[in-house]
């Protein structure tokens, strides 16, 4: 009986360690994804600012500004 308990304990410790490793990897991937999304959002904002706004377009008599 003691052998069975010790084996189960070893198995559970091994599973726990594998889970901790997987969790750390997922946390790292999540952090990388957050950084990527921030860069994409920044690029979107810059490109939107580069486009002539509707107000500026209307103020110029409907002609796009150079």
Which descriptor suits the 3D outline? rod-shaped
Query: Spans of 5+ residues with little confidence (pLDDT < 50)?
Result: none
Structural class assignment? mainly alpha
Distinct helical segment count: 2
Strand portion: under 5%
Oligomer: single chain
Separation, N- and C-terminal Cα atoms: 84 Å
How do the SSEs run, as a string of H and E? HH
Rg, Cα atoms, Å: 28 Å
Largest sheet: none
Helix percent reads over 70%
Number of strands: 0
The average pLDDT value, as a whole number, equals: 90
* Domain module count: 1
Comma- or semicolon-separated keywords:
single chain; about 70 residues; mainly alpha; 2 helices; about 85% helix; rod-shaped
Provide an overview of this structure.
- With 66 residues, this protein is an all-alpha fold.
- The chain is 83% helix and 0% strand.
- The protein has one domain.
- It has two helices and no strands.
- The relative contact order is 0.06.
- The model has no long low-confidence stretch (mean pLDDT 90).
